[in-house]
Amino acid sequence: MEFITPIFKWLHIIAGVLWIGLLYFFNWINGHVAATMDGETKQKVVPELMPRTLYFFRWGAAWTWLTGVVLLLIVYWMSMNDSMFRELDMGEEANNFKHLAYLIPFLMVFVYDAFYKSALAKDARIATIISFAGIAGVLAFLIFVAEMTSYRAYNIHIGTMFGSMMAFNVWYRIWPAQQRIITAIKNGEAPDPADAGLAGLRSKHNTYMSVPLIWTMINEHTVGVSHYLEGYGVLLVMVALGWHIVWQIYKKSETIKGF
């Protein structure tokens, strides 16, 4: 394990840099550049640029998610199961909610997807408040119900939740919509606004989730800040701060001009 863990952490970071770097390129650079192109230029550039970029984008997402799940298995689940068996050997009762906690990061993907298809998500401000409350609710479940009291443990599970939502968006929402958009542009047709809206919205969601996700990816090195505030408070502050940073960069990206 002492050999496997750092190798997978290394691969996890490399894949994450590839994926999230391209995510920022799409949201803060490419969209503004594409808006300056006429139809003929888009017809030449988009079918050549986007499939190549999206190839690395989606496989970066896949490898980030896969290596993250391996790390979750090695860093937390295996050690947790060993601890449970020791509790049972000593005649102590294991908390059955801990088994449910394993599934929460993955189940919340479908809750997120259903929510953002619903009428409740039409108002961005309300949707943001509900989303933040949902994150706080999942964190409360992990800590107070499943008794996952270790700072690193609930950080890695919240990170897995963000990463799973983001990877789901890439493969099942953004990539299919982009395939239809690229095909339409290549054929000289106007893309379906619904495809552009879906791909743009889910890509924006991923951008907002990316900064808190990166915090959870390095959580082994952030344990110290939990001494200044309860660990779950630190995580919620970083989610809110991360969202604010992304919002500010979105505004800044609109002001950057070409020569």
Structural overview:
The chain has 259 residues and is an all-alpha fold. The chain has one domain (4-253). It has helices spanning 4-34, 39-89, 97-115, 124-145, 151-186, 193-217, 231-253. Helix 1 packs antiparallel against helix 2 (39-89), helix 3 runs antiparallel to helix 4 (124-145) and helix 4 runs antiparallel to helix 7 (231-253). The radius of gyration is 20 Å and the shape is globular. Mean pLDDT is 90; it is low at 84-93.
Summarize the structure.
Helices cover 80% and strands 0% of the residues.
Strands, helices and their partners?
Blueprint: H1 4-34, H2 39-89, H3 97-115, H4 124-145, H5 151-186, H6 193-217, H7 231-253
Features:
0% strand, mainly alpha, 259 residues, globular, single chain
Largest sheet: none
- Count up the domains: 1
- Quick one: how many beta strands? 0
Distance between the termini: 52 Å
Helix content: over 70%
Structural class: mainly alpha
Q: Helical stretch count?
A: 7
Order of helices and strands: HHHHHHH
Rg for CA atoms: 20 Å
* Mass-distribution shape: globular
